[in-house]
Amino acid sequence: MIAQNNVRSTNNDPVESSESYPITGGTNGAGTSRLFRQFGSLFSSPAPTTDPAGYVEFGSISDPVASSGRTLGTFAGVFCPVALSMFSALVFIRVGFIVGNAGLYVTLLQFIIAYVILLFTVSSVCAISTNGAVEGGVMISRTLGPEFGGSIGTLFFLANVVGCGLAISGCAEGIIQNFGPSDGTGSGSIPDGRWWRFLYCSSLNTLMLIVVLIGAEMFAKTSMMILGVVVICLLSTYVSFLTQGPMDVSIPHENSLVNFTTARYTGLQADTLWSNLHTNYTKDYTSNGNQVNFAVVFGVLFSGVTGIMAGANMSGELKNPSKSIPAGTLSAVLFTFLCYMALSVLIAATTTSTLLQNNFLFLGPINLWPTFVTIGILTATFSTGLSNLIGASRVMEALAKDRVFGPLMSFVVKGTYKNNPIAAVIASWVLVEAILLIGSLNTIAQINSVLFMLAYLATNLACLGIEITGAPNFRPTYKYFTWHTAFIGLLGTAIMMFVINSIYALSSIILCLLLVIALHLFSPASQGAQWGSISQALMFHQVRKYLLMLDSRKDHVKFWRPQMLLLVSSPRSCCPLIHFVNDMKKGGLYVIGHVKVGEFADNDSSNDPTIEEYTQWLSLVDHMKVKAFVELTLSRNVREGIQHLIRISGMGAMKPNTTILGFYDEEQSKDFFEHEDSPYKTSEFDGNGIKLFPYRKSGESKSLGVVDYVRIIDDVLRMRKNLCLCRHFHRLDKQMIARNNHIRYIDVWPVNIFEPKNEDPFDVVSQFMMQLACIINMLPVWKKLELRVFLCESETVSENSAAFERPAEHRLDQRLKLLRISASIHKIPEWSKDIDFAKHRNILKQFTGNSDSNQLMAEENINRSKLYMQRINQIIRDRSNATAVTFMYLPTPPATPSVDYKEKCHHYLDLLTELTFDLPPTILVHGIDAVTSTTL
C-alpha cells in the first residue's frame, strides 16, 4: 500500500483464507471547486464584475495583496448596483398598477412586507459577507452542499432568465407607449399586437445578446452613471406630481376592456387620495383580462425589488467588502424603500383609480418632460435585462465547469472564448426567448418573484443552519445577524411564495427536489468534500446530541441489535464476506477494522500511514455499497492492534458487540477486484503499477501464527464480545442465490461438537446463532430460503429412552415460537447411533477452555479426535447440498495457563478445520450475553 514505506515493519499481509481477514493487517480559495465561483450572477440582477480569470468573487475579505487591484468604494461598488437593480422596470411602469388595484393602504403594507423579507435576507447576506474570504456562490452552493446548492443555483439561473424576460417586456411596453398606436398622434407609429410585441422583445433580446458577446465588462462599470440617469428621471416624476394640474390621459390602444378613451389625472387633491386608500381590484388588460388580486399585485411588486445581492457580487472590485457590502446594501434598500413609498403616496393623491387601472404607463403623459420617463423606462429595463442575461450565462458556465450535471453541459465549457461563455450566453438567450412567449409582464413577474424568493429562502436557510450547528468558523462581524433574523427571513419568503402563486411555488419546490435527487445520484461525489455541506454540519449537531442521550446503561435485550466489527486484512480477498456482514447487521453499527503492522517512532518524520490510507478505505466502502464505518490502527503486532480496535471502535453506546474474523486456513486467496466473473470487479484500486490492498499470494508465508490467532479468539471472548469465525465465504454468490432455486436453506447447528449437552439448543450461544440466522432470513434476497435448525442428541443425553427424545424437540419448537423465529426442526438419527460421544467427550474437552487437564495429550487421542470431527463433518455435508450459509457452535479456545498450550492451540484449530471442511459458507459462532427476548 502507499503508506507502507512510512512504517518500520514488514508488510502485514493477511493470514487469511481466500475470503477473509483473519486479522491484520479544507481547501482554500485556490483549491476549491469552481461551481458558482464566477456566479456574480447567483444572486444578482446587475452584471457581475469578472476578474481576468473570469471569476466573480463573493464577499471576500480584502487583504493587502488581494486588494491591490480593487478600486470601488461603498457608493460605486455596492449602493449603485443594488439601487439600480431594485428600481428595475417597476418604478416607471407598474407602481400605478399596484396602487390602482390594491389601494394606498395595502400598497404600503405590501412594500413593508417585501422590504421586511429583504431586510432579514440582507442580514444573512451581510453575515456571510463579513465572515471571512468567501468565493462566489459559496453562500448557497458550498454551504448547502452540491445537491441542494446545485439545485438552488439552477433555479437561480432560471430566475435570472425570467428576470431578463421581465425587463425586456417592460422595455417593449415603454417603446410601444412612445412610438406605437398608444401615443395618440396617429403618425409615425409602429404597429402593435401580441406578435408584434414578441418581435420587438426578440429584437431587444438579440441586441442584448450582441452587447453581452462584445462588451459585457464595460457595461459592468457604468452602473453609477445609469443609476444617475434613472434618479434624474424619477425626480422629474416627483416634480411633475407636485406641479402638474388636472388633465385627461388617453387609454392605451391595447386596452380592450373599456369603452372610453380617456381617464382623469387630477393633480394633488384630498378627494383623489381618499378614493385611492382602499382596494379596488379589477381585471388586468395586459393579460387577457385576468382578475387581479392581492397575490398578483404582490408578485408584480416583489419582482421589482429582487436585487439585494448585487453589491455582494461586486466584492471582487471592492476595497473593503466587509464594510462596504453591509453599509451599501442597507443604504440602498432604505433609499429605494423611501422612493417607492413617496411615489405610492404621490400617485394615490394625484391620479384616479380609473386611470391607474387602465393605463399602466400614465407617468409619461403627465410628466413635465415626457422624454425623461421614456429615457427612465428604457434605461432601467434595458440595464436590468442585460445584467440578468449576463448573470444567467455566468451561472450556467459555472454549473458546466463544475460538472454538476456531468457531461450534459460540456458544450458550455467548450464554447468559451477569452473567458466569455459564448455557448452559455446563447443558451440563456434561447431560454429568454421562450419566456417572452408568455407575453404578459404581470405573469412573468409572478414567476420571477417565486424563483427569487426560493433563492432568498435558501440563503436564509444556509445561514440558519450554520448558526444552529454552532460552527466555530462562522463568526460574522455584522452584529445584527442572529438565527432569529434568518428564521424570520426564511419563514417570510416561504409564506409569500405561496401567497403570490401557490402553483408556481409548489412547481418550483418540486423542480428543486427533483434536481436534488438527480444531483445526489449523478453529481460527482468529490464536490461535497470540496465545498462542504450544511447537511453534514446539521447531522453532526444532531448525532452528537442523540449519542449523548443514548445511554448504554439503559440497554435492554428487547431492543438488541448486532453491532459488527469485521476485521479485514485485504478486502480484495473477502468482498463477499464484507457484503454478507452488511446484510447481517440489521440496521446496527457496522465497522470495518484493519490493523497495519508498524511502529510510530518518535524520530520518524513521516506521517502516520493510516491517515493516507483512510481515504482509500472510504472509497472501498463506496465501491462495495455497504453502510459501514472504517477504523484503522497502527500497531507493533496484529493481536495488539485488534485489542485497540475492539476497545476504541464506535462511540458512546454505539460500540461493536460482535467481532468477526476470517478463518485461519491454507485456502488460496482470490482477487475479487480482478476476477472476470466477480460482481466486485474494478480497476479503481490499481494505479501506477501499485495495487492497493495487497493480499497473500500462493506460497507466501503468513505473518500471523496459529497461537496468536487462537489467542486473539480468546482475547475477544475475554473482552466480552460475541465472536464469529467465517470460512468459505469466497464461495458465497448472492446473485446465484437469487437466481438459482437449488439453494434453499440456511442451516443452524446448535450443538457444541466438542462437548455436547442436552442444554445446547437453549444456551446463550445457540440462541445467538439462531438470532443471526433469523436476521439474515429477514432480508429480501435471503427471505426465500428456509431456516433449518438441527437437533442433535447423543445416547447419553437421551438415556436410550424414546420418552426423552420428544420433549427436547417439543421444547425447541416452543422456544422458536416464543422467539418468533420461523424455522423447521430436523433430528439427526445417526447422531446417537453411529457416534460414541461418551468416549470422545473427555478427549475433546482437553482442547477447549473447559479443560482442567495439564497433561500432555496422547497421539492416539489426537488422531481419534480428528476422525471424530471428520465423521461429524460428513453428517453435516450430507445435509448441506442445498445450503447457502451454515451457522455452527464455536467452542471456547484452550485455557492459556497450560503446559502444552501451543500444542493445544494447533489441535484446536485443526479440529475446527476438519469440522468445517468443504462445507458451504460457514460461521462459527460464540455468544456472550442473551440477545433474544420472548416479549415485545
Automatic annotation (TrEMBL):
- Span-the-membrane segments of this chain are 75-99, 111-134, 155-176, 196-216, 223-241, 292-312, 324-349, 369-391, 422-441, 447-468, 480-498, 504-522
* Residues covered by the Amino acid permease/ SLC12A domain: 84-565
What segments bear the compositional bias annotation Polar residues?
1-21
Q: Which Pfam families match?
A: AA_permease, SLC12
GO annotation (BP), single = chloride ion homeostasis
Q: Looking at the record, which segments are called Disordered? A: 1-26
Q: List, alphabetically, the InterPro entries matched.
A: AA-permease/SLC12A_dom, SLC12_C, SLC12A_fam
Q: Lyase: present as a keyword of the record?
A: no
Location(s) in or outside the cell: Membrane
The record describes its membrane topology as: Multi-pass membrane protein
A GO cellular component annotation in the UniProt record = membrane
Domain SLC12A transporter C-terminal spans what residues? 576-666
Single GO term (MF) = potassium:chloride symporter activity
Q: Does the keyword Cell membrane apply?
A: no
Write out the similarity annotation: Belongs to the SLC12A transporter family.
Which PANTHER family does this chain map to? GH08340P, SOLUTE CARRIER FAMILY 12, CATION COTRANSPORTERS
Report what the protein is called: Solute carrier family 12 member 9
What is the organism field in this record?
Anopheles quadriannulatus
